[in-house]
């Protein structure tokens, strides 16, 4: 654990990672704004569709930036990230599957995108630590 802390404390964000973080923040702001518009404004059907599609450009840009960043990693780092993504994908699928059954049992409300993204983020971090530990 001390080794991980030492590694993380010496890391300096690169220009690429700063732009990725800024793009992620912009995409999140657009996502929140779009969801807010859809919930709180009385929009025409065409405006509702436009608002629903508004987050696409920033999120596609973020996706491209992340893929480019992963392609710059060495083979070992890519393998760790791949395993983390696989764990996150499968665990999120399982969580959504279970949530669906809980919905049928009327134990939980409707599933929303924020909850799914939350599952993915948590499971990715968990998967990353599992994969990194496996190769330690």
Explained architecture:
With 136 residues, this protein is an all-alpha fold. It folds into two domains: 11-72; 74-136, no CATH class. The protein is 82% helix and 0% strand. It contains six helices and no strands. It is flat. The model has no long low-confidence stretch (mean pLDDT 88).
Notable characteristics:
mainly alpha; 136 residues; 2 domains
Tell me, briefly, the overall form: flat
The total of helices stands at 6
Number of strands: 0
Mean pLDDT metric: 88
Count of all domains:
2
Rg, nearest Å: 18 Å
Helix content: over 70%
Please write the string of helix (H) and strand (E) elements: HHHHHH
Sheet with the most strands, sense and barrel status: none
Low-confidence stretches: none
Strand-residue fraction?
A: under 5%
- Span between termini: 11 Å
Q: Helix/strand/pairing class, anyone?
A: mainly alpha
What secondary-structure arrangement, pairings included, does this model have?
Elements lengths: L1 H9 L4 H26 L4 H9 L2 H16 L3 H30 L8 H22 L2
Helix pairs in contact: 2-3, 2-4, 5-6
């Amino acid at each position: 654990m001390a080794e991980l802390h030492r590694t993380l404390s010496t890391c300096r964000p690169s220009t690429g990672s700063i732009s990725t973080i800024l793009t992620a923040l912009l995409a999140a702001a657009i996502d929140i704004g779009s969801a807010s518009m859809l919930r709180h404004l009385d929009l025409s059907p065409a405006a509702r569709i436009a608002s629903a599609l508004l987050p696409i450009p920033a999120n596609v840009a973020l996706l491209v930036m992340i893929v480019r960043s992963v392609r710059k990693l060495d083979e070992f780092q890519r393998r760790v990230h791949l395993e983390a993504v696989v764990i996150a994908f499968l665990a999120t699928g399982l969580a959504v599957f279970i949530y669906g059954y809980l919905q049928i049992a009327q134990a939980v409300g409707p599933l929303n995108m924020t909850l799914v993204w939350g599952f993915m983020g948590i499971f990715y971090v968990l998967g990353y630590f599992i994969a990194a530990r496996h190769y330690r």
